[in-house]
Every structure is written in C-alpha cells, then in structure tokens.
Write a structure and sequence with these properties.
This protein is of the alpha/beta class. Helix content is 48%, strand content 13%. The chain has an 8-stranded mixed beta sheet, sandwiched between helices.
Length: 264
C-alpha cells in the first residue's frame, strides 16, 4: 500500500515514524524543507510527486491549510482515499463532498504539550481512542488503524464529532487558558498539586492553530461556553447567598454527572 502524508509535525511525524516500521510504502511532504529532508531520511520515505498514485493520503495540517490544499489539488485526488487528523470535521467533509473526493475523517485522541516533528514519537497512538466519521471503514484505512495501535475506534458523523469535541476538547482548552489569567497565578509556588497541573496543562496552546479550530466550530463552542458560564454562576450565587444547601446540591449534581459518564 502507498500512503502519503502532507504535514510532518507532531501528528504527521508520529504517523510516519510508526508506518516506517511496517511494510507501507511511505511518501511525505512538508513546506519546511529541513523537516522534510530529515523525515525522509528518518523514515525511509520518498517525496510525494504524484498524488494520484497513492492509495491513501493523510492530511496532517491545520484546518485552513487542509481546505486550501483541497481547493488547489482536488482534481488530483479522485482515485485516492483522503483522510485527515484534524480537530474539526464538518468543514472538511463538506469540501470533500463539493469536489467528490473519497473522504474518511479520523481524529486521534492523542497528543503532547509540545509540537513539531522533533517531538513526534512512533508510540503516540498506542491505546488511544480514534474517532472516525463513518462506520464503513475502507480496508486500507483499517490496516492503518491497526498499524498505528489505537485502542478503540468510535464512529461518529462529522456533525456529531464537532458538537461533542466542542465540549471534550475546545471548551477545556479555553477554560484552562482563561483560568491562568488570575493574578494569583504569580504566587502559587509550593501551593500546586495534581488538580492545578491537570487544569492548566492544555492552556499552553498554539494560538494560531486553536483560533482556526474555534472559528470552524464557533456555534457549538459558544453554546458550550454559555452552559459552562451559567453553571459557574450557580456556584457563585450559592456562595454569595451563603446557601449551603444549594451548594451541596450543585456539588452532588456534578459528582452524579461524572459518575454517570460512560467512560472518563
């Protein structure tokens, strides 16, 4: 099987490193010539010169770059299964429908706090969840999923994916980033533990990437922010009113929501 990867950052690089240990014939491209040459050497890969000769093309790019790529190259992609690892799906699925491209969306629930090819690792996806946008998984894609080592595959539509990811990922990044803006953060040495570390971890985000993700999912994200703010205010009002019964009720409700969650 011939697999191409466009974008050799953290995710694309990790895919390349894992596939290089298999019998996949690997082709790659990246705008950064230094990264591209290093990745070709590291992974026994070749430069992509003809998209139409590939069986699968993985777009490991930011959302805007994926849409630009599809606009520019769609005439070369009709015999190729195109997939991506992007954190939004509906805009990409719609673009592929527009150009009659064979699209199969994938979103690995894996990452690191540091980006770039230098931080990519072949084991990044071991045991991780993978969200896919169709239950009809092509054989070549299924082979890639097995090689990459995902622990479970969750089937969703592109629309459902974006609605849920606004809550499980995008809201978390905004909440973490906003949480860091208290002036108290300058006086926390010796006071931090697991709870502080967990809540602040994803706030160290790439603003340009997350701007694109937020903008491509604006409606869903605004709705989740509004819900979160409303519930935060409930705790605030209970504290202001010294209403212990209300506060206990709110805390119990939150615990019950977590306990009833299918899997955390």
């Amino acid at each position: 099987m011939k697999v191409g990867i466009v974008g050799i950052g953290l995710i694309g690089g990790s895919i390349a490193k894992r596939l290089s240990n298999s019998n996949i014939e690997l082709f790659i491209y990246d705008n950064d010539v230094k990264v591209l040459n290093q990745a070709i050497m590291d992974n026994n890969a070749s430069l992509i010169t003809n998209y139409s000769e590939l069986d699968v093309l993985i777009l490991a790019l930011h959302p805007n770059a994926i849409l630009t790529f599809l606009d520019t190259n769609h005439k070369l992609l009709h015999d190729v299964i195109v997939t991506d690892i992007c954190g939004v799906k509906e805009c990409i699925s719609s673009a592929c429908d527009k150009y009659n491209i064979q699209y199969f969306g994938m979103h690995p629930m894996a990452g690191r706090e540091v980006g770039g090819y230098a931080n990519s690792i072949a084991s990044l996806f071991d045991g991780a969840n993978l969200v896919v946008t169709s239950a009809d998984i092509p054989q070549d894609i299924d082979t890639l999923i097995q090689i990459l080592g995902f622990g479970s595959v969750v089937v969703s539509s592109a629309v459902e994916h974006d609605a849920v990811i606004a809550y499980t990922s995008q809201l978390c990044h905004i909440a973490s980033n906003a949480f860091a803006k208290s002036k108290t953060i300058n006086n926390v040495d010796g006071f931090t533990g697991g709870s502080f570390e967990d809540l602040t971890r994803v706030g160290r985000l790439d603003p340009q990437l997350w701007l694109q993700l937020f903008n491509k999912n604006r409606g869903n994200l605004i709705s989740e922010i509004e819900t979160f703010v409303r519930h935060l205010n409930e705790y605030k009002y209970a504290l202001e009113g010294e209403n212990d019964a209300r506060l206990i009720s709110l805390l119990k409700d939150g615990v019950n929501c977590l306990n009833n969650c299918v899997k955390l």
